[in-house]
Amino acid sequence: xxxxxxxxxxxxxxxxxxxxxxxxxxxxxxxxxxxxxxxxxxxxxxxxxxxxxxxxxxxxxxxxxxxxxxxxxxxxxxxxxxxxxxxxxxxxxxxxxxxxxxxxxxxxxxxxxxxxxxxxxxxxxxxxxxxxxxxxxxxxxxxxxxxxxxxxxxxxxxxxxxxxxxxxxxxxxxxxxxxxxxxxxxxxxxxxxxxxxxxxxxxxxxxxxxxxxxxxxxxxxxxxxxxxxxxxxxxxxxxxxxxxxxxxxxxxxxxxxxxxxxxxxxxxxxxxxxxxxxxxxxxxxxxxxxxxxxxxxxxxxxxxxxxxxxxxxxxxxxxxxxxxxxxxxxxxxxxxxxxxxxxxxxxxxxxx
Amino acid sequence: xxxxxxxxxxxxxxxxxxxxxxxxxxxxxxxxxxxxxxxxxxxxxxxxxxxxxxxxxxxxxxxxxxxxxxxxxxxxxxxxxxxxxxxxxxxxxxxxxxxxxxxxxxxxxxxxxxxxxxxxxxxxxxxxxxxxxxxxxxxxxxxxxxxxxxxxxxxxxxxxxxxxxxxxxxxxxxxxxxxxxxxxxxxxxxxxxxxxxxxxxxxxxxxxxxxxxxxxxxxxxxxxxxxxxxxxxxxxxxxxxxxxxxxxxxxxxxxxxxxxxxxxxxxxxxxxxxxxxxxxxxxxxxxxxxxxxxxxxxxxxxxxxxxxxxxxxxxxxxxxxxxxxxxxxxxxxxxxx
Lengths: 352, 337
Known about the structure:
The structure holds two protein chains of two kinds.
Chain A: E1 20-33, E2 36-49, E3 53-57, H1 64-71, E4 80-89, E5 92-93, H2 99-108, E6 110-113, H3 117-120, H4 127-136, H5 144-160, H6 166-170, H7 179-191, E7 197-201, H8 209-226, E8 229-234, H9 237-243, E9 246-251, E10 254-260, H10 261-266, H11 271-278, H12 324-327, E11 333-334, E12 340-342
Parallel strand pairs in A: 3-8, 3-9, 6-7, 7-8
Antiparallel strand pairs in A: 1-2, 1-4, 4-5, 9-10, 10-12, 11-12
Helix pairs in contact in A: 4-5, 4-7, 5-7, 7-8
Chain B: E1 19-36, E2 39-55, E3 59-63, H1 70-77, E4 85-90, E5 93-94, H2 100-109, E6 110-113, H3 127-138, H4 146-153, H5 170-182, E7 188-192, H6 200-217, E8 220-225, H7 228-234, E9 237-242, E10 245-250, H8 260-268, H9 310-314, E11 328-329
Parallel strand pairs in B: 3-8, 3-9, 6-7, 7-8
Antiparallel strand pairs in B: 1-2, 1-4, 4-5, 9-10, 10-11
Helix pairs in contact in B: 3-4, 3-5, 4-5
């Protein structure tokens, strides 16, 4: 019943995979706090092509969610501010838009699915009305016929994301739905205006494993049908390994490694990625009973007080007592090709 | 190093493998709504017939998805919820008939570590007071440096005793939660999702700490978790729960699952190896877990099971050694795949 067979979500002509639909250049977002200005995201660059899935991996505070919020113009200001950079969707710079144009762009150019579907749905409105609201927000002075059409479209979208009995569900309230169903509603809502880019911020973290599998299958289905570019933000290495084309690893607000999923997970070239993979318990062999895990020692740095050189240097096992890591900020550089880049001074020495 | 002035936790005269906890026919039901004519509108069958034992020095893990009753089992062991039926025995002593003195002993020897380390402490108390509180409650004389010793034991600096909870990260705070649980020198630790609120790199630190403490102090753990990979790495025995019942139990059920639910649960965990993409058989269950107020007749998993036959609706499968390999399985068709 959850298998999506209808193609209610509009088919878009297939664009060649080389078409960059989202490009982010030199994005830097800061927050002003009592203890001074904190750079949550520093100099982030990446491209997302149509029909491609880009995974963004990192721990809490690494800047992955702030990157997503910056793209959508959702950074609360004050205290936050995007201080530099360019975010282009099909050539249009979102950061240069005025408020009204940005509102028009959000939803139709870039849409987002949040982690907790309960807190992102309004508990006092019916599901169908909430989906229709997003559609109507993109029409100026919708007529009665428009409203009726939006309501019908909401039901179609619910059917397309595998919600059984969509007519009945559309009249229900969020509390009457299970967590998995609510996340399906969020996906229906995000896809309602046929976006070019879908940002999924930890879309399955609040869900159980068997429901997570259903939702990831649905996202793959939706992508296949609409050729939407998906930015998957997660801390789950397993989700990345099974679902994305390219990966970007973030640490302390910077991209430390980037490349195809095969390269980054199979042949990591940054000590942080190596550490992250080592402490992922699902990478232990299945028959290993009572085996110790290999943690990364220490704690992530305090963002108000980042070390001057490489942010990972204090926890890095590769550094030894080399001064350069503490003094000089490493840049992303080819490791060894442009398809796989790492920000480590000694990336040649990194072994998985 | 562990309060050398007091008696050691591990009694060397006790044989390893001694049974500490025995749970038999445990049922915990929660009535919902108002009582009318002596009847409640609905009942949540949170735990509905669970049996298991925990031996000294062992880690037994309960895995399952939200709402399967695993946390309710954990809470009943430390007396936070009362069983509706069935018995919980600690060293042969039944919790229902235990005297006050026996309950005091039980509360000392069975301690719990919670999921959210910040939600389980008073933010206005200093770490020293947090760690010493169990001793104060039990009226046990405390050494001047108890808090410092316990902090050292969980890998934190002793000077942290004078700080407040907000000065710590999640991983450090969970270490403090473990230190507090160890203050009474317990025999059994109930670990209710101790790492699921932490970042991956920190999770490994806490798991390693728990394993070291177990080896050092001979503790027994009942680990409640939903992360199958972590459970597989640390457990001596795994119990898989679904909708209030154990569906499969054994030392290797997560490597070699025999019950369809365990198979689906394992298949749903994305492998971290890129190479395995698309190569393994994927089982994606349809639909949601049924409501625990109205569990299906017969086998509770049958509504989502691809093997379900008529017998599954009529007869509830018992948890038996069906394959002769030592693992208990509650499925009418426990074929290995």
